[in-house]
Design brief:
With about 290 residues, the protein is an all-alpha fold. About 75% of the residues lie in helices and about 0% in strands. It has one domain: MetI-like fold, CATH 1.10.3720.10. The termini are far apart.
Length: about 290
């Protein structure tokens, strides 16, 4: 075997552990889930193939509303996280007094265990004992206690706010690192030419941040789309299904109702949606990157 063949073989040997890991952890469960989605598997020991019946049930029931709600929930949550995170990163990168303290204060939502943080927000949303309702009553904004998690629209936005609170620190720190990687010479040259602060942000910071924004928004979108803990701990998909997203519906079907076949079909549908969305997302963002580069 020549030197080139030895190098190729050595490269494959280095990739072998990762390949085995992906095959065992990712590929096999995915194939098994797809296989399960065509069956009527449940708690019974035996099950049979039912073809596309599970998928027919999805589109013949109220799942269309669940799909739409999931995309709306994901869109607003990611939009707010990216907006607040980028704004926070720009402020933390500025020469403001107490900047180190402000950077430290961005960490608690990320450091505190997620379940504890969500329970804390649940108490804040409580109508009788919650801080938010109490402050609104004290300021005269409402006449009586407001149970935010008892009404569909308020519960929907309450879960979004909680998700934003948990996700903003990661976005902020990621964007802050990306901003600090931008050469200072560019800002100094623009400042010498008389460019305003907003112009420097629009023509220097934002274009150079675009790759980081694309990466972070994609990671945030996938995590938010599959977010389970926040909604389940706060509302369990209620009231009246107003906060039931695709992942919550999949859990209720597969684990709550023991309909593993139908739950697997919903899981496959989630995977398909995320794959299609990721493909078109990268197509659109790559065009935006090319336009900014001009």
């Amino acid at each position: 075997m020549n030197a080139r063949g030895s190098a190729v073989l050595f490269a494959w040997l280095l990739l072998l552990p990762a390949t085995i890991y992906i095959a065992v952890i990712v590929i096999y469960p995915l194939i098994d889930t797809i296989h399960l989605s065509f069956t009527n598997a449940s708690l019974r020991k035996t099950f049979s193939y039912v073809g596309w019946l599970n998928y027919d049930k999805i589109f013949n029931e109220t799942f269309a509303g669940v799909i739409g709600r999931t995309f709306v929930w994901t869109f607003f949550s990611v939009l707010l996280k990216m907006t607040v995170g980028i704004a926070g990163a720009v402020l933390l990168n500025s020469a403001i007094p107490g900047r180190a303290l402000f950077r430290l204060l961005t960490m608690p939502p990320w450091i505190v265990p997620m379940a504890i943080g969500i329970f804390m927000w649940g108490w804040m949303y409580n109508g009788q004992f919650g801080m938010i309702s109490g402050v609104m009553q004290k300021w005269g904004l409402v006449d009586g206690p407001v149970a935010f998690l008892a009404y569909g629209s308020s519960a929907f936005w309450a879960t979004i706010i909680t998700d934003v609170w948990i996700g903003v620190p990661m976005v902020t720190l990621y964007m802050l690192a990306a901003i600090q990687a931008i050469p200072e010479d560019l800002y100094e040259a623009a400042w010498t030419d008389g460019a305003s602060r907003f112009y420097r942000f629009r023509r220097i910071t934002l274009p150079l941040l675009l790759p980081a924004i694309i990466t972070m928004s994609m990671i945030s979108m996938i995590a938010t789309f599959n977010s389970f803990d926040i909604i389940w701990i706060l509302t369990q998909g209620g009231p009246s299904g107003s906060t039931t997203t695709m992942i919550i519906d999949t859990y209720k079907t597969a684990i709550g109702s023991y309909k593993y076949g139908e739950g697997a079909a919903r899981a496959v549908l989630i995977c398909i949606f995320l794959s299609i969305f990721t493909y078109f997302y990268f197509r659109v963002t790559s065009r935006l990157s090319q336009e900014y580069a001009r």
